[in-house]
Sequence to fold (273 residues):
Amino acid sequence: MLPLVVLQLIQQEESYGYELVERLTALDLEVSTGLVYPVLNRLERDSLVTTFSRSSPSGPPRKYFALTDAGAIALAVARHQWEQTATAVSDAIELERE
Amino acid sequence: MSHFTPAKRSTSMRASMYLLRLDWHLEGVVSASERRRILRTLRDEIDTDGRPVQAVIAGLGAPRTLAERYGEGGWMRPLWSIGTLTAAAALGTYWVVFLSFVGGMLAVVDSAAPMKAEATFVFVPVNAFSNDQGFGIGWSGGWEWLVVPIVIIAIFLLVGARVWRLFRRDRTTTE
Fold:
């Protein structure tokens, strides 16, 4: 699930590593850099995200992550699968309530 | 500014120590090129993170756990650093046993001097002598002298690099 959310956030706005952790935390997800950095590494290795350097007002330039075309396709597929799963789970819970 | 330099050096050292430990754990789970890339990226992340280095390292978690996350889905690789240590220990042990053997021979011939003895230790011909003119030990300079240590190094390098997997507390699946 974490790669899906990370791809979604990067699609919304290009971010650097720790900024993504902060954005995930703002969504009430309990994550740390130790969880997010390996995910970013895999996404970059699989060419789903690309990186570029952007200057920072408070120090050296930071490594930002941006979605690639392959990443956008992978995100669309993952979102579709997630929506199917979420719908199926919701239906099952509704059936139990009835 | 002089007051800033010591703190920065301490910070770099702490981060370097963390990355050194991570490097050790990564060796068994990712390729060498991937390992270098991960370490370079993490060093950059630590350097550009605005928080105190203690907080940055605490967020990354234990080096071993972080390495396992990076290696998720991969296969367990040989640990050549452990292989090298094992081979060095085996070679050292071979030398100690060899010299003990030759020393024992010398003690025997010296106690029964004048005497000369010849024997073979793991294919290597050795001899010892003791007489009125002195005592000494020696061994052959043939192919055995070179081949036996090389074979010992090769075997323990290959075994040591792989056998570490048996001693892992959490054996991950291999592909």
Notes: The two ends of chain B are 53 Å apart (CA to CA). Chain B has six helices and three strands. Chain B has two domains: 5-70, 80-167. Chain B touches chain A through 21 residues (CB under 8 Å).
